[in-house]
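Bit of a strange request maybe. I'm writing a small parser for structure token strings and I need a real example to test against, not something I typed by hand. Could someone generate the tokens for this chain?
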Amino acid sequence: MPEVLRKIVISNSDVISKKWLAEITEKRKPDYNTSISDSLYHTTNQEFINVIFSSINRQGNTGAMDDFAERLINLGWPLSYITEGLQTFRKVTVDFILEQSDQIDSGEFSKILNVVEDWISPIITQLVNEYSGSWENTVSLQRMALRELSAPLIPVMKNITIMPLVGTIDTERAKSIMENLLEGVMKHHSEVVLIDITGVPVVDTMVAHHIIQAAEAVRLIGATCILVGIRPEIAQTIVNLGIDLSKFPTKSTLRKGFATALKITNREIVNLDNANEDVTQILDSLKK
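Reply from user aminoacidic:
Good idea to test on real output. This should exercise your parser:
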């Protein structure tokens, strides 16, 4: 029976294709097709139905489906387009087969459904796997990018770097902070590292513990860590939790922390206006 039905469907592919194209076009959803032209939509539908019949005719040819799925992914088509298209094909095909016979009992009807399902299931599995693999790869790349951005180390002057932290700090992010700190200190030959927690909404025991660990690790490789951006509410929380931050300098603002970093590296901020006045006075004294 499966082979007989296959021959019926393949030999009447033009009729089934027209019915499928009519129904799938009628079901077209504007939410994911607004940026897709009518010509591209109809071309894609035609390619889709060709891929389906190619799979049925060759009993699971995978090359065409892989290429088709890759194009859909690159164009940004949702997975729902594939699932709806295959569900519609299942309905249209079963209806067409039933129209070929005047009387079909429940047993025959069940067999027809099973045969058509055997055609559709491998296609769904393969196309969904293609989409899943693409999404997993995208998510992995995004996770790597976010990991790099979540704990950036920025060299601002010779031997001075800043790590601005924004958002919640969890265990995985704390690990990234530690790794980036240690790698960055060695790479930039940093003597002082400013950890800016101005953008960290909550500093609890776990967050403070991670920061202390990071600062201690920086100290062990010969650099000084300064914690800046401690707001009044954060300071109160740290005191209430009994967290000891006395092992490394803390400042309320990045500006104050940067001034401290300059002193540690034997530099200071000079007012150029005053410096010009001093030079003028010296020149005037030489003229006398």
